[in-house]
Amino acid sequence: MSTQEVETVSTSADKAKLAAAVLLVVGALVAYYALSKQGVYAQWGALLVLLAAAVGAFLTAEQGKALVAYGRESVREMRKVVWPTRKEATQMTGYVFAFVVVMALFLWLTDKTLEWVFYDLILGWKR
C-alpha cells in the first residue's frame, strides 16, 4: 500500500479570493435587506448578482477548482457502478423484509420465554 503525501499550498491570492467570496456573500445579504424599500426585483437582483460573483470568486481559487475536480471524479465513478436490475432489487428487498420478520418473531419468542422463566417459574408471580 503506497502512501502519498498531499501538500496543500495556499497562496495569498487564493486566500484573497476566498475572503472576497465571503465578503460578497455577506454583501449579498446586506444588500438584500438594505434594498427592501427599493422593491422585490432590486432585492433579488442584488442578491443573485452578488452570490454569483461570490461563486465565481470561489471557483477561481484553488479550493474551488479542487471542489469541481472532486465533483467530476464523483460523476465518473458513479458511471462505473453496476446498478441492480429491478428483479434483483425486488428480490433483495423481499429477503430483507423476510429477515426482519424472522428476527422480530425470534426476539418476541425469546422475550416471552424469558418472561415466563423469570416471572412464573423463578419468582412465582402469577398474572
UniProtKB/TrEMBL annotation:
Principal subcellular localisation of the protein: membrane
Intracellular or extracellular location(s): Membrane
Keywords annotated in UniProt: Cell inner membrane, Cell membrane, Membrane, Protein transport, Translocation, Transmembrane, Transmembrane helix, Transport
Molecular function GO labels: protein transmembrane transporter activity
Cited Gene3D superfamilies: Preprotein translocase secy subunit
GO CC terms of this entry: plasma membrane
Pfam families associated with the record: SecE
Transmembrane segments: 18-35, 41-61, 92-110
GO BP annotation list: intracellular protein transmembrane transport; protein secretion; protein targeting; protein transport by the Sec complex
Family: Belongs to the SecE/SEC61-gamma family.
Subunit structure: Component of the Sec protein translocase complex. Heterotrimer consisting of SecY, SecE and SecG subunits. The heterotrimers can form oligomers, although 1 heterotrimer is thought to be able to translocate proteins. Interacts with the ribosome. Interacts with SecDF, and other proteins may be involved. Interacts with SecA.
Function description: Essential subunit of the Sec protein translocation channel SecYEG. Clamps together the 2 halves of SecY. May contact the channel plug during translocation.
Protein known as: Protein translocase subunit SecE
Origin species: Leptothrix cholodnii (strain ATCC 51168 / LMG 8142 / SP-6) (Leptothrix discophora (strain SP-6))
